[in-house]
Fold:
Amino acid sequence: MEKIKILKSTDKKYPLKLLEIKDYPKELYVIGNEKLLNKKSIAIVGSRDCTNYGAKYAERFAEQISKENICIVSGMAIGIDTCAHIGALKEKGNTIAVLGCGFNHIYPEENTELFNKIIENKGCVISEYPPETEADLSKFPLRNRIISALSMGVLVVEAKHRSGSTVTAKYAKEQEKKVFCIPGNIDLKTSVGTNRLIQAGAKLVVCAEDILAEYGFPVKIDETEQEVIVENEYADVYNVLTYMPTNINIIAKKCKLDISKVSQKLLMMEIKGYIKSMPGNEYVRL
Structure:
């Protein structure tokens, strides 16, 4: 592990943006490029139990925002946070991970590799807790004030009701930062928090340009995707599918086909890499 640096609130390198909040950490433990802490940043947060839809757009927004030399801040949790960090790294952009534990107890453990990749790619990982501090879920909502404070604004991709991500949005509002939300399927628990934030005044966004325009970036982002061409025999079923899970019964009904026939087509499309099966006989596009 790289050497841990300690930035006290009286140090010149301590991020000025944190000093603007009343409960700023008196010291920060830092690994990696501490210069990022004073760079223009956008936070991207969301549900740990994210959908394919949420994962796709967290990564895409992070990647596109990174193209404008804006740092991506998140909490290195599984789900949306992980996708945000990965999106920034794909564009060779900078990213900051804010931990709710000490460096000797990376949480979640499965993100240890992501932790290393962030450091290897000149990113930054910080914590207000000493290295020996173990993961304690009660600490995680509190660290969200740091995520929002380091950022110009916060994008919530998916969030359950009263989740950690809605806490981050609350901190952002208290800090007079802008809150953005990607709208979600009203049938899903992971959309309740985001959709309610939109009702409460968060800006609904459908592309990264919607966020960048708020900060005076006159950019035009190419939102086109490479078209997936499937064989004609599978087109009817494929066209029913989206990036949100769809049950096989609904697919069969919309295609006016027997379940057995739909099941055969779905199996072949999954083998070919067009789609992915989900729990509960549901399917999504890839």
Remarks:
- The longest helix spans residues 52-66.
